[in-house]
Design a protein that fits this description.
This protein is an alpha+beta fold and 484 residues long. It has 10 helices and 23 strands. The protein is globular.
Length: 484
């Protein structure tokens, strides 16, 4: 090998960001085991970041507008509200706007269905304001569009650990650190540079549940994503965009705690891994690292240097193709009806009331957590469309790279399988895009194990495998079309 090509995309790009931190006192309870309802303060701010990408030709009809929010889950109606606000401000089609979530569990449960609870009266006005702010970001990003090059790199980080642990003493699976389980440590990074090589933004794509801060925490927080951004932006002064990978069975090795320093340390670990990968990228875009021949010294030295790309490589890096489709997923045959879910909720509420009546405080707390589980099950069921779930997938080939956006929560097998099949292309995989429904989409072999993710999955076993095969087939077509 006499030349090393760093994967790149030639395009037009811009980025805009604003603070979307909810007010202290807003409804915050994300965890069934929590004993608080209202947020008591703010650990670190939440952000909305809008990345605008379009082809070099300035064909705005082919643009993608990625809106990344520091939230865990949002209802479909609010995703659509944000999408509509951005599309109107950008004069774009709604399907060009992709709303994705970092999935921080410390942002609070921002659902209008919680408006009747303490602090819930603040949720509706807050979400309306977020939609307006995202529209303003679109106008800001449109004004800042400029020619750009995206340069991609790989790294690794062992922050994420497998979280499907079997408790042998109690003969059950629990959601927590599994020291013997496999965990994908792949880290995708990118630098976005303008035509003068000035840094526009950095991108970090990594799969790890932001569940450092759990039921003990009462502070609004982006979890580890907050310190990740702070550290990267200190050394590379431009906005850092975090994109959550397929983390259904991945979480921090040290997590489910209430102390903010642990979340900060988890972010530092990922930040330094990302910085190592970012600083390994070439110091100039639109170039290749080429063997230049020997120089006779005390030894005969083999020298390498950067030189401009040839025309074929430049054309390939300008490729631009975006496809979208609905992948219909069948529901599991034993999915409870809404009536059955409501009956279970009523039963658990009565159990909680009975425990309180006789002073069994610990039992009442456990019953309350199960009431929360049953409430969310009913909430999920009410939001599912009839017959099957249309999983809306967006796949793009941007130059040398593939960008994938999928709703729901997927296991790490999605990214390991796709990257294993296409090892020569950087693949940025972003889950929880345009909605968290249908929830978890775990591999078929988890359904019979009693794992939480498998127990609450709405779609049938085999759905994960179906999605991977469908995406892989379209990736192959995009690669073949670009290589012709």
């Amino acid at each position: 090998m006499r030349a090393i090509l760093t994967p790149q995309t030639r395009c037009r790009a811009s980025i805009a960001r604003c603070d979307i931190t909810p007010p202290a006192g807003i409804y915050h309870r994300m965890w069934g085991a929590a004993t608080h309802d209202r947020a008591t303060g703010v650990h670190k701010p939440l952000f909305a970041t809008l990345l605008w990408l379009e082809p070099e030709s300035e064909d705005r009809s082919q643009a993608l507008l990625l809106v990344a929010l520091d939230h865990c889950i949002l209802d479909h109606a609010d995703i659509e509200l944000i999408r509509g606000s951005v599309a109107a401000a950008a004069a774009a089609r709604p399907e060009q706007v992709l709303v994705t979530l970092s999935h921080t569990h410390a942002a609070g449960l921002m659902s209008r269905s919680r408006s009747h609870l303490p602090g819930g009266e603040l949720i509706g006005p807050y979400l309306d304001e977020v939609a307006e702010l995202c529209g303003a970001l679109a106008r800001e990003a449109l004004a800042a569009l400029k020619p750009a090059t995206i340069v991609y790199g790989h790294g690794c980080c062992n922050l994420a650990a497998n979280r499907d642990y079997f408790d042998e003493e109690r003969n059950q699976f629990v959601c927590g650190f599994n020291p013997s389980g496999k965990a994908d440590d792949t880290l995708l990074v990118a630098m976005i540079l303008d035509e003068f090589e000035a840094l526009v933004a950095t991108v970090v794509n990594y799969a790890c549940h932001p569940t450092t801060l759990a039921w003990q925490n009462t502070q609004i927080s982006p979890d580890y994503v907050g310190s990740l951004r702070e550290v990267i932006e200190r050394d590379l002064p431009a906005p850092c965009l975090f994109m959550q990978g397929a983390s259904g069975d991945l979480g921090p090795r040290v997590g489910f705690v209430g102390d903010e320093p642990t979340a900060n340390l988890n972010g530092l670990q990922l930040a330094y891994s990302a910085l190592a990968a970012l600083f390994s990228l070439p110091d100039t875009s639109r170039s290749q690292f080429v063997y230049a021949g020997p120089v006779v010294s005390g030894a005969t030295i083999g020298t390498w240097h950067y030189q401009p790309l040839d025309q074929a490589a430049a054309r390939r890096q300008s490729l631009w193709n975006v496809i979208q489709w609905n992948e219909p997923l069948h529901y599991r045959p034993d999915l409870p009806s809404r009536a059955e879910a409501q009956a279970e909720l009523d039963r658990l509420r009565q159990s909680e009331a009975d425990a309180l009546a006789v002073g069994q405080t610990e039992l009442a707390l456990e019953c309350h957590a199960r009431v929360e589980q049953a409430t969310r099950q009913l909430w999920r069921l009410e939001a599912l469309p009839p017959n099957s779930f249309p999983l809306r997938i967006t796949l793009a080939r941007f130059g040398d790279a593939l960008w994938l956006f999928v709703p729901g929560e997927h296991y790490q097998i999605m990214q390991t399988a796709l990257r294993g099949r296409f090892p020569n292309q950087p693949i940025i995989i972003t889950t929880l895009t345009d909605g968290w429904q249908p929830g978890y989409i775990p591999p078929a072999d988890t359904y019979a194990c009693g794992i939480y993710q498998g127990k609450i999955a709405a779609v049938a076993a085999g759905s994960a495998e179906q999605v991977i095969e469908s995406i892989a087939a379209r990736m192959q077509s995009l690669i073949e079309a670009g290589d012709r």
